[in-house]
Amino acid sequence: MRKGKxxxxxxxxxxxxxxxxxxxxxGNGFGFRYSDALELNDLFGYRxxxxxxxxxxxxxxxxxxxITSTDALEYRGERIKNSELRKIYEGKLENIYPCAEIEPEExxxxxSYRKSEIYAPKxxxxxxxxxxxxxxxxxxxxxxxxxxxxxxxxxKTYVINNLTxxxxxxxxxxxxxxxxxxxxxxxxGSFSGGDDPDGSGKFIMAFFRNEAVKAGVHELLDNRDGxxxxxxxxxQALIKLGLVPYGRITDTDESSPxxxxxxxxxxxxxxxxxxxxxxxxxxxxxxxxxDVYTVPVSHGEGRFFASDDDIKALAxxxxxxxxxxxxxxLATDDIRFNPNGSAFAxxxxxxxxxxxxxxxxxxxxxxxxxxxxxxxxxxxxxxESAVNYFKxxxx
Length: 395
Hints:
Elements: E1 6-10, H1 16-28, E2 31-34, H2 40-44, E3 52-55, E4 65-68, E5 72-75, E6 78-81, H3 82-91, E7 129-134, H4 141-150, E8 154-159, H5 165-180, E9 184-187, H6 197-208, H7 211-223, E10 227-231, H8 233-241, H9 243-246, E11 258-260, E12 268-276, E13 292-299, E14 303-305, H10 308-316, E15 320-324, E16 346-350, E17 356-359, H11 382-391
Parallel strand pairs: 2-5, 7-8, 7-9, 9-10, 10-17
Antiparallel strand pairs: 1-3, 2-4, 5-6, 11-14, 12-13, 12-15, 15-16, 16-17
Helix pairs in contact: 5-7, 6-8
């Protein structure tokens, strides 16, 4: 691998070599011809701990077969088309959890909002400090901290102690003090509260609604031009708190914009395309309206929902930051591109001034060597933009 001789690799699981090869072919659009020397037990038997490698180096191990340009898997004269196999693979539970929904004839509006003057802080800072709260179930704090440090920020990760009442009380006091020393609060993705919007929201909301923490958040936003961001579970928390779209910790009700269960009632984990719909947020200062990025998503409750009038009002104010788009760069309800069925294909929204940003896609999951066989631009420059905001960088 270090010498660049391995083009792809996979670890066989329950279905052995056959499952691994089928998935590798379906994912990359290849055909495959198995070696006649292999018996059926070799193909379907357990191979835990082994690796399937795509390579030109014939000395690497036992040859399983060769890649072909046909849309088929072939073995001893028999063949099955990948397209047929994929229908069987993906269609097993189609009548229970429908995935192949028919796209509505009318597409949602693709929003574009351009602002000449972007919000700028009164006090500049060469190395802004980011505070990352870690709640029970949080699992993206390390990725988030890494990309923020790489962008030039100082990062403080604070673990919330919820084992005892005194532990929670101490965490509230300490976290409120940490806010005073920070310029940015970042609520990372997680499966807090089982990733149920109300479950995760209730614990995180209760913590942020404590008077000391709430006062610290408002002081950060009102007096120090601070930034706040939440991704995935963090977005759920921000919207339940009212920080998006209102820019304040406030009471929300059933008429407020919210996030709810995916339209197909199951978890979605895939790469999607999102389009920048507004340049209002400092978090998106490094992008242009119309730019399209490829972003990983992993959630069961990421469907943005609000009334048509509310969404159009948010769009008119530049608060619809990003939308899920198809291959033509247009907002869509097609489940292949809009994984949760979000209204108007909304992927991310902001506060009225753009400084609080919530989104579902994991823009922090970037790095050298990732997604090598997938085309697209993965770096939205979010973290670099946030650091540059405090440095006073104009572009």
